[in-house]
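Would you mind writing out a protein's amino acid sequence and the numbers that encode its backbone to help me picture the idea?
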Amino acid sequence: MSELPPVVDAAWLRGQLGEPDLVIGDVRGPNAHTRGHIPGSRPLVLGSPPPMSDPDVIEALAKEIGLRLRRHGVTGEERLVLYDRGDGVGAMPSAQLAELAGHPRVAVLLGGIATWPGELEVGQVELEPVKVQLEPRLDALPTRDEVERRRVEEGLTLLDVRSEEEFSGRGGYPCDPRQGHIPGARRMDEAALFAAPGLPKTADEVRAAVGAPGGAEVIAYCHSGSRSARATLALRAAGYRARNYPGSWHEWSRHPELPVER
């Protein structure tokens, strides 16, 4: 199997166009794809993880995403590159969902379609469903149980990318029954990871900001998973083994048995 980095840029993708093991998925939706897409790509809407991590929910989601992949002709043998409009909010959660379903080689296009230097294709693409079954990888999505079990584990960085007001409990969303942060978390602004929207700072700059060596494991969270999805993209681009906790504070604050720090 050819290796695939977790994050690729447009120059890399352009050089790979036409390779038989490359599948490019456009997560923006079929209408946007029809109006203009990267040559050779197909619409591949996987959605975003729900803000809850009960085992039965995660298991059902893995099966559903596996079905969507099969319907779009994705077997798991290919190198799968996903792109969105450019901010990573669509492609990064979709990549984690593909990993959850069991796809072993998934990457996100940095900067999405906005950075594509060539001509776009227009029109619909015929999809050919396949029957191959993927083996789910349920650890692709951190759950509240995993975060609680491992939040102070040596070698793991739990990264809160919300504002200082949210982290301290002085501010936050009124819908949350409790305010504060997960004990053991380190806080930094999500924006501190980026040089421009959807475009992370250099790997050295990101590592200096995070304070952990390249290759380390990071779990990121925010309020409902969007900011931490973008952060996960930057973290992966910097060489971290990063995952987004999609339940984030929205889920954590609703479970009184889980600890809170202010």
User: Anything to note?
Assistant: The mean pLDDT is 96. The first strand starts at residue 7 and ends at 8. The chain is about 30% helix and 15% strand.
